[in-house]
Amino acid sequence: MAEVKPEEMVHHPPMDQLQGFEYCIDSNPSWGEAIGLGFQHYILSLGTAVMIPTMLVPLMGGNDHDKAKVVQTLLFVTGIKTLLQTLFGTRLPTVIGGSYAYVVPVLSIIHDRSLAQIADGHTRFLQTMRATQGALIVSSSIQIILGYSQLWAICSRFFSPLGMVPVVSLVGLGLFERGFPVVASCVEIGLPMLIIFVVLSQYLKHVHVRHVPILERFSLLVCIALLWVYAHILTASGAYHHTALHTQISCRTDRSNLISSALWISIPYPLQWGAPTFNADHAFGMMAAVMVSLIESTGAFKAAARLASATPPPAYVLSRGIGWQVSSCIILASCGVLSIC
């Protein structure tokens, strides 16, 4: 590993706390509030963890049980990688979740002729998962080399806020492409969700309960609770009995089959879908997503440091964060994780 230059070891003063932020990197909420905010972060991660397998697993030939198992695996390893990043990586308040940059390479593996011609759905799912594992393991080695060799530290010196802001913005805009069509498929639930969330978080944010801006800080949890009760009432009252099948799948609360198909306790383990298979075409396609993920993560680290009023992360810290982000990725990819490295 390259030696850290002396000028990079000097203390950088923390940034001024942004207006409207109550907590910074050195302050902690109470235990009760921390648990509530942590659960809200879990709900945010749940959206990505459900959306990616819901889109990919059926194309692989998997059933509802396979989809539930992939969701459980994705959530489990998201927590592990977040702990590693906050304890040993950049040590910034960041959640390491799934990345949509890997969706296109995974889709190319799914449509590979050697896999698509398998007649049995479950066998095709297993073979596709093994091929995806192998491609992720090979491509992750690039990130490990760039991170721990400090080569990415050299590259990150050329990243300015002017370049990082569009990158982070495009990451968020990429979610609109996946999320808004789902909202339109059930507009009677999706549209009220958007309206209530904006009203609570922007126009009722000054409402305090025991000196805590409860509606601003926990607006997502309040919206999800209200809208799920509303959707369940529509389902139980028979509002979707005579609608199209696509509408029932999108709007009813009893058609996803995730809860009924999931095990109460499921701990992912390496090679749970079999030994990974390696293919040069799959690996090179996944390497393109690796470079996109590197830039996304670097921009997210810089943005998290500024929002948390933390010391601007030096180049060697960013490189260390990239290294830790994927040091466990080889092991986790063997568990069959989709789009998290």
Automatic annotation (TrEMBL):
Subcellular location, record wording: Membrane
Family from the record: Belongs to the nucleobase:cation symporter-2 (NCS2) (TC 2.A.40) family.
Gene Ontology molecular function: any one: transmembrane transporter activity
UniProt keywords, alphabetically: Membrane, Transmembrane, Transmembrane helix
Keyword Transmembrane assigned: yes
PANTHER family referenced in this protein's UniProt entry, alphabetically: XANTHINE-URACIL / VITAMIN C PERMEASE FAMILY MEMBER
Record keyword Metal-binding present: no
Stretches that traverse the bilayer: 39-59, 134-159, 179-200, 220-240
Example of a GO cellular component annotation carried by this entry: membrane
Primary site of residence: membrane
Membrane topology: Multi-pass membrane protein
InterPro entries: NCS2
One Pfam assignment: Xan_ur_permease
Protein name per Swiss-Prot or TrEMBL: Nucleobase-ascorbate transporter 2
